[in-house]
Amino acid sequence: MTTTEQSGRSDIGANGRVPDELVAAYREHGFVRVRGVLDPDEVERFRTSAEAYLIAHRAESLEKQGTFSQLVNVWQRDDNLRALTFDPRLGRIAEQLAGFPLRLWHDQMLVKEPHNNVATEFHQDRPFWPHAGDRLALSAWIALVDVPPERGCMTFLPGTQHRTGLRPQNLGDEDDLFALDPSLRWLPRVTVPLLAGDCTFHSGYTGHMALPNRTDLARYAHVIIYMDEATTYSGTAHVVTDPLGLAAGDRLDGDTFPGPWIPHRG
After folding, report:
1. Which CATH superfamily, name and number, covers 20-244?
2. 49: helix, coil or strand?
3. Which of 10, 54, 133, 199 qualifies as a cystine partner to 37, CB 3.0-4.6 A?
4. Left if phi > 0, otherwise alpha if psi is -120 to 50, otherwise beta: which for 66?
């Protein structure tokens, strides 16, 4: 058990929104930390579900290089984790930060095993996705355990949400992103430790990496990826869209990519 006392730490106001200064920070830097999204009881419930899900589905991990376990669309197979993916608090904050209506692209569980000693190197998320006609997607990265630097928290490159047009990067190559754009090498790097129940939101183009887990405990994160509700399919391959029989230009909507479940828009 690695939750830390959260009472009185939440950045979410009584109206379900985060302060304007956090919205401004997100739009300037491409990422922001939101404290106390989940309370300790919720953290315990979702972490327990995540541990059980990993045991049952570890062999399905998309990451085959041992950097981490990556399990996609867990909301479709686990009712408890579905409740976290569709938590209206998170959807409300995501739309507040983005400034436009969103749909779910997919969720994923990211687990770094104890003493894995491997970093997830700097990359952008958006180049991996078969999206077209969209404004900036964003991800909510929710810590289900305390994630100090030594357990694999993330480091961000502020302002890189405006750097588009790059090919997908190699998550195992520490130089790949910087070889594509050498100017990014000299940007400040901001490491963001999280207590269990905290969350970061980051743009799909914001450069980021995750440090190795050098501790005795696994690092559990639940990630919800939101996209512009107007997003269409680009036609390129992706594990989420490959089984769906889509044609380039089709809207990414319907039951697979829900949107109206986010209440209190506007």
Report:
1. q2cbj1_9rhob like domain (2.60.120.620)
2. helix
3. 199
4. left
Determine the angle formed by the axes of helices 20-29 and 88-98, rounding to 10 degrees: 60
Residue with tokens 């357990």: 151
Partners of residue 57 on adjacent β-strands: none
- Structure tokens that stand for 84 in this block: 């976290």
Asked if residue 239 lies in contact with residue 128, where contact means CB atoms within 8 angstroms, the answer is: no
Q: Which residues of 169-191 are buried (b: 16+ CB within 10 A; e: fewer)?
A: bebeeeebbbeeeeebeeeeeee
Q: What is the pTM of this model?
A: 0.94
CA distance 127 to 133: 14
Q: Which amino acid is at 131?
A: H
How many alpha carbons lie under 13 Å from residue 232 in its C-beta half-sphere?
A: 8
**Helical ranges in the chain per DSSP H:** 20-29, 40-57, 79-85, 88-98, 176-180
**Of the candidates 126, 145, 124, 123, which has an alpha carbon nearest to the alpha carbon of residue 137?**
126
Structure tokens at 130: 């078969």
